[in-house]
Amino acid sequence: MKQYIEWPLQESDITSEVCEACGARCCTIALPMPFTDDRKIEWFNTVVDRLDGVKALDNGLYSFTCGYLGEDNRCTIYETRPQMCRDYNCVAWTKVNGQDFSVMNHVLESIGLEPIDPDAGKGLY
């Protein structure tokens, strides 16, 4: 019988202090190569090489960082940031996403809590 554990954080636990401790992890996203055609891949890599905030990762993904993220990992347009950014909540995202605990675990570790082990055979409720 599968055991269940309670989510270590709830949506309401994400405060400005938690966000500050995290270091703006939500402002960077890793995505796979969008093309399979060699010419398009060459073009894409040429463009990526010239863009600040975009880099190729070792695992075949590309990391995209928001252009409004300052060197101090704070939003430089916080008061006028897009609605998508205003609505983002790492707990809600992890619950909806269901399989990627990397952002949630980063947040948990940044505030001194134990990360979630998705391979531990326990479900979350």
Summarize the structure.
The protein is an alpha+beta fold. The chain has 5 helices and 5 strands, in the order βαβαββαααβ.
What does this structure look like?
The model has no long low-confidence stretch (mean pLDDT 84). α1 packs across α5. The strands form 2 sheets. A 3-stranded antiparallel beta sheet has the order 2-4-3, with helices on one face. It has a two-stranded parallel ribbon with strand order 1-5. It has one domain (3-124). β3 and β4 form a beta hairpin. The chain has 5 helices and 5 strands, in the order βαβαββαααβ. The chain has 125 residues and is α+β, with helices and mostly antiparallel strands.
What attributes does this structure have?
two-stranded parallel sheet; 125 residues; alpha+beta; 5 helices; 3-stranded antiparallel beta sheet; 33% helix
Q: What secondary-structure arrangement, pairings included, does this model have?
A:
Blueprint: E1 3-5, H1 16-22, E2 28-32, H2 38-49, E3 54-56, E4 61-65, H3 83-87, H4 90-97, H5 102-110, E5 122-124
Parallel strand pairs: 1-5
Antiparallel strand pairs: 2-4, 3-4
Helix pairs in contact: 1-5
